[in-house]
Structure formats: structure tokens, C-alpha cells
Design brief:
Number of domains: 4
Largest sheet: 6 strands, mixed
CATH class of the largest domain: Alpha Beta
Distance between the termini: 51 Å
Number of helices: 24
CATH topology of the largest domain: Dna Topoisomerase Vi A Subunit, Chain: A, domain 2
């Protein structure tokens, strides 16, 4: 019966997609529904709308937590959970209890969107009488004659472009049309409705941008676009909440007369880091660093493209240069550029090749330094934690990889800077990123999910082929439990890393190894089995394997269980019992609806409670 219901829901979803494609279900209506209950995923936006008109949809437990109860006799709205199984939700009209106030904006829409733009380091020019001398790519000019609501919608459209399309604004240099326009207009409309503006996008017929040739799979295109819109809207909604906590422009104006004007603390740090990067880049050409990189196979043009720099040997080169520019010592220390010990200040990076680590907005927030060949100190040195450099919440190369990821390249997670460069130069189909001196975290995977679609195809984990790299690959799986796409893994041969392979075998050798991927879950299970047998502790291996199957491989649990049973030479029923035990703790919480799958045709593994792991990568 459950399988019959699941099949029925999938059939209804496909029928609704066909209605959207034919124009029977207007895209404007779909966008309105995405604004109302898009948090359940695009497939469920279609499913819910096909069953009844709703205003606020929640699970039974969520209504209970909100102080309202679902009335007896109410028929549930059936949706698909993240693992593709039927679940029940109910509309506000099906409940009784204290009045529930739907979200409303605390600020006028224009002020809210402008605050959001400011939080993303944009300069909003609405009739300014003075010349803007900053970064042109960070300037948004509001056309004259727009009232506040129209200006808010225009700015929301620009922010949508920024999130959706490689961080670029629609500056008029290219035509905003086709799928790109549909996505930006739809996200802007969702944000506008969040702020109380009853605005829906006027779009061309869906068939004009999704296509009509069955070979181009127009229904999948609609699903994909819907998922991208929901993800981008979720990012902007989240940032709206953050920006809402900032004081309004009027409040700032009122306090200006009472407090001296001061640069925001984070902005001062970012300016110092930007100046430091310029200092390092200026000293790069005459250092040992260009020759070293050239010998490793990285062309001079690519070194310049990645904006590599050099921190000169000596104790105060950067310190003296930046203090002479007016940067206070306290700012340089807080930015992680200078240390003070026993009353003496000195540079953090000395005689090192340095590369910038950028935020998702492209600002330099820290550095990774590589020691000269033959140096006896640490090979790699990262900036210390600062207010703008949170190692566990950053990925080296993510900003640089954004164009390739937006074009459909598969993300590859590597250990170090040169590994990322090697893969970037070897394959247009792959885009490499690296943790910044930490073990991979769920926050970093979340960042990656914001830049690439991980719902249909997960990232590829490519760690070093030495013992530490193989162990790290086996332990890091817990960071991927929220990824519904398949996660692949590669361990390079003979204790090599991608940069070594690039040096000795060139791009062809790197591409060959990238094609040798296995499912990460298979690697994890084989490692658990091997370690358990080596220690003479198969019970521990069984527990580890069961936890991994529940976290990553539940949708193929039977096949994975057979692999474990064969590897440990035990009764398959013993593996099954451990799987049930591993799955049992969150059973009570499973009544709360997990966010739905973004497509109607996938069957990804469900989320598991967030966990941390203790692995440490050998280098950034």
C-alpha cells in the first residue's frame, strides 16, 4: 500500500510538471506556491497545490509545537520526504488553537532589501550626487523614477542574479533573458512576497525556456530550474533575517550625532587583508616562488590568474609597509597578519609563497603560506582564526571555482592549494576546493551546496594516497550525510597527491585518476572491514559499517549489508540487526518532516543527526 501511494504521488508530480510545461498551470501560480511552502522542495510545491489550496503547511508535530492541533477527521496532504517516501502535512485551516501570525516584515520592503544588499558589500546608488570610486562590480544603480516598492523589486532581482549566476550583477552589459531571467525574476518575486509585496513575475511561456523537444527533457529542466530558484530564495531569505538584526539607516543617522564616525570593525580587517595581498603580489615576481611553481608545472599566466604572492624573509616587512599606510597595529594583529610576543611585533608569514583565501563574496579573508623547498619549518601555514576567517566555514578556491560550478562542473574536494590548481588545470569538467587547515566540516559542505547542485550528483572526495589520506577519506563521510547526490571518492596511488600526479603525468594522468572513482560508502565500508580485521575486532567494524550505511547508503542498504557480511565472514542477519539498531535512535524524531527532495524522481538517503569527527587533514 505504501509503495502504491509513493508511485501515485510521483505520477501526480509528473502530471503537474506536464501541466506547467503546457501552460495549464501558470508559472506565476507556481512561484506564488514556492513563496508559500517552497521549503518542502519543488516536487512538493506541485504535489501540495494539486491537493488543495493552502496558506501555511506544517507537519502534525510542527503544528503541535506551535500550540495548534490538527482537528480530528482532517485528511492529510500527502507529500514526499527527502528519501522519497510519503509523509503527511496539514494546512493552517485544518488546525485549531491560538492565532498564528504569518511572517511580516518589520521594515519597509525597500529598507529591508537595501540592508540585505549592504550586508553583501554592495553599494546601492539611488540618486547619489557624488562620484562612486569603489569597485564597479559592487555598485547597483537604481533607475530613476521608481517608487520604493519598485526599487525593492529591482534590487531583489540584482541580488538574485548575484546568488544564482556566479556572483555577477545584471549591469546591462548582457541581455537578461531565457532561463536566467526566469530564475532571477522568480527569486525576486519570492523575496518581495516575503516582505509583503504582492508581486508575481510576468514570464514567457514555460515551453519557450524549458524547450519542447522530448530529447531535451523539458520536465527535468523545469524541475532543475525550480530547485535552483528555491535554493537561491532560501539563501536570500536567510540573509534577510540576518540583515533585519542590523539597525536601520534612520537609527544609524540618529546615533551619528551621538557617536564618532568609525569604520565597521570587519571592514577595517578586510581593508588590511586587501592591502597585505597587494604587498605580497608586488613581491612575488622577484622571489623564489614563481620558479618553484613553474617547475611544478603551473604556467606563469596561471600563477598570475590565481593571484599568488610572496611574503618576504624578515620580521617586519609587511608590518612596516602597512603601518606606514596608516593601519593600526591592533588591526593587523586582529586580521591575523602580525603577532606580538614578549612586546615585539612581527609578521606571521615570512619567506613563504602565499595564496589568498576568499569569502563567498570574493573578499580576501586570510592566507595560506607554503614554505620554501628545503625549509625545516611547517610546510604549510594558515592564517589564524579571526572575525573574518573562520577555517571551518571556508573553502579555499570556492570563489574562484564559482564559474565552473555554475556551468555544471563537478566539485572535487582536495587537501591542498596545489592539488586544487592541478585539478583545475587538468579538467574543465571538475572544479576543486580545499578545506583551510581543518578537517572537512558540514558547514563547508553546506557552502559547497550553495554553489553547486549536489542533489543529483554529489561531490568527489580526492585525498592523498598515503595512509593518512586513506584514513581521512574513510572518516570524513559524516560531513556528507545531508548530501542527497552520490558522493564519490578517489585515493591516489603510491602515496601521491593530485599535484604530484600533475607534475609527473600531466593533465592526462590527473584526468585518468579522476575517472577511477568509487562510491564513498564503499570505501568507508572496506576501510572499516580492513581495520576491524587487522585489530581483531570485527564487532567494532560492524558498528562503524552500520552507522555509515544508515548515514550514506540507506537507499542501497541490502547491497551494502551483503558487502559487510562477506568481508567480515558473518551471518547477514547479524548485519541487519546492527542496521536496525543504528537506525532506531532517530526513529522518534522521524515523525517530524525532513525537508523534501528537490526532484520527484530521485531517492536520496535521509538526513542523520549532525556529528563531528576528529580527523585532521595533513595540510590545507
Amino acid at each position: 500500500m505504501r509503495n502504491d501511494l509513493e508511485a501515485l504521488l510521483r505520477t501526480i508530480t509528473r502530471q503537474e510538471l506536464e501541466r506547467v510545461h503546457r501552460g495549464e498551470l501558470a508559472w506565476e501560480t507556481v512561484v506564488e506556491r514556492m513563496a508559500a511552502y517552497g521549503r518542502y522542495g519543488f516536487a512538493n510545491v506541485l504535489l501540495i497545490g494539486a491537493q488543495r489550496e493552502v496558506t501555511d503547511v506544517r507537519t502534525f508535530e510542527e503544528w503541535k509545537a506551535a500550540g495548534r492541533r490538527v482537528r480530528k477527521g482532517e485528511h492529510a496532504i500527502r507529500v514526499l520526504s527527502r528519501q522519497g517516501k510519503p509523509r503527511s502535512v496539514f494546512d493552517l485551516a485544518q488546525t485549531s488553537g491560538p492565532e498564528t501570525v504569518l511572517g511580516t516584515a518589520d521594515r519597509p520592503a525597500w529598507q529591508s532589501v537595501k540592508a540585505l544588499a549592504t550586508s553583501r558589500r554592495l553599494f546601492v546608488d539611488r540618486g547619489s550626487t557624488w562620484s562612486y570610486l569603489g569597485d564597479p562590480s559592487k555598485r547597483v544603480v537604481i533607475p530613476p523614477g521608481l517608487d520604493d516598492d519598485a526599487a525593492a523589486l529591482f534590487l531583489a532581482h540584482q541580488l538574485a542574479h548575484m546568488v544564482l549566476h556566479r556572483g555577477e550583477l545584471d549591469d546591462g552589459s548582457r541581455v537578461c533573458a531565457g532561463i536566467g531571467k526566469v530564475e532571477a525574476d522568480s527569486v525576486a518575486a519570492i523575496v518581495a512576497r516575503e516582505l509583503g509585496l504582492p508581486i508575481t513575475p510576468a514570464t514567457a511561456p514555460v515551453s519557450s525556456w524549458a524547450g519542447t523537444d522530448p530529447r531535451s527533457r523539458p520536465l527535468k529542466t523545469i524541475e532543475h530550474v525550480g530547485g535552483r530558484i528555491l535554493r537561491a530564495a532560501a539563501v536570500l531569505r536567510r540573509d534577510l533575517q540576518k540583515a533585519a538584526n542590523e539597525p536601520t539607516a534612520e537609527a544609524k543617522d540618529r546615533s551619528a550625532a551621538e557617536e564618532p564616525t568609525a569604520e565597521p570593525p570587519d571592514r577595517a580587517l578586510l581593508e588590511a587583508l586587501k592591502a597585505a595581498h597587494l604587498f605580497f603580489v608586488g613581491r612575488f615576481p622577484t622571489s623564489w616562488a614563481p620558479g618553484y611553481l613553474t617547475r611544478r608545472g603551473f604556467p606563469e599566466a596561471y600563477q598570475l590568474q590565481r593571484q599568488a604572492g610572496y611574503a618576504p624573509n624578515g620580521w617586519r616587512g609587511l608590518l612596516d609597509a602597512l603601518t606606514s599606510q596608516g593601519f593600526p597595529l591592533e588591526t593587523l594583529v586582529e586580521a591575523g597578519l602580525v603577532k606580538v610576543r614578549n612586546g615585539r611585533a612581527f609578521d606571521v608569514f615570512r619567506d613563504r609563497l602565499v595564496v589568498p583565501v576568499r569569502s563567498e563574496h570574493g573578499e580576501v579573508v586570510g592566507f595560506i603560506g607554503r614554505a620554501a623547498p628545503g625549509d625545516t619549518g611547517p610546510k604549510y601555514l594558515n592564517s589564524p582564526e579571526t572575525p573574518v576567517y573562520k577555517k571551518g566555514a571556508l573553502l579555499y578556491g570556492l570563489h574562484e571555482a564559482a564559474p565552473k560550478l555554475a556551468a555544471g562542473a563537478r566539485p572535487v574536494i582536495v587537501e591542498g592549494v596545489l592539488d586544487a590548481w592541478a585539478i583545475d588545470l587538468s579538467s574543465d569538467a571538475h572544479a576543486a576546493v580545499a578545506p583551510s587547515g581543518t578537517a572537512l566540516t558540514e558547514d563547508q559542505v553546506g557552502l559547497l551546496a550553495g554553489a553547486a547542485d549536489l542533489t543529483t550528483r554529489g561531490p568527489l572526495l580526492a585525498l592523498d594516497g598515503d595512509t593518512a589520506g586513506r584514513r581521512a577519506t574513510a572518516r570524513v563521510w559524516k560531513a556528507f550525510t545531508q548530501v542527497s547526490g552520490n558522493v564519490g571518492a578517489i585515493c591516489f596511488p603510491d602515496s601521491q597527491d593530485p599535484a604530484d600526479l600533475f607534475l609527473h603525468h600531466g593533465p592526462v594522468g590527473v584526468r585518468h585518476e579522476l575517472a577511477q572513482e568509487r562510491d564513498l560508502i564503499e570505501h568507508v565500508l572496506d576501510a572499516a572491514i580492513a581495520e576491524g580485521l587487522a585489530r581483531g575486532d570485527p564487532a567494532s567494524a560492524l558498528r562503524t559499517a552500520a552507522e555509515a550505511i544508515i548515514g550514506l547508503g540507506r537507499h542501497n542498504a541490502a547491497r551494502h549489508a551483503a558487502r559487510v557480511a562477506q568481508g567480515l565472514d558473518i551471518d547477514p542477519r547479524e548485519v541487519t540487526r546492527h542496521l536496525i539498531n543504528a537506525a532506531s535512535p532517530p526513529a522518534r524524531a522521524s515523525e517530524t518532516f525532513p525537508l523534501a527532495a528537490t526532484t520527484a524522481h530521485t531517492d536520496p538517503p535521509p538526513p542523520t543527526p549532525k556529528t563531528r569527527h576528529d580527523s585532521r587533514s595533513r595540510r590545507p
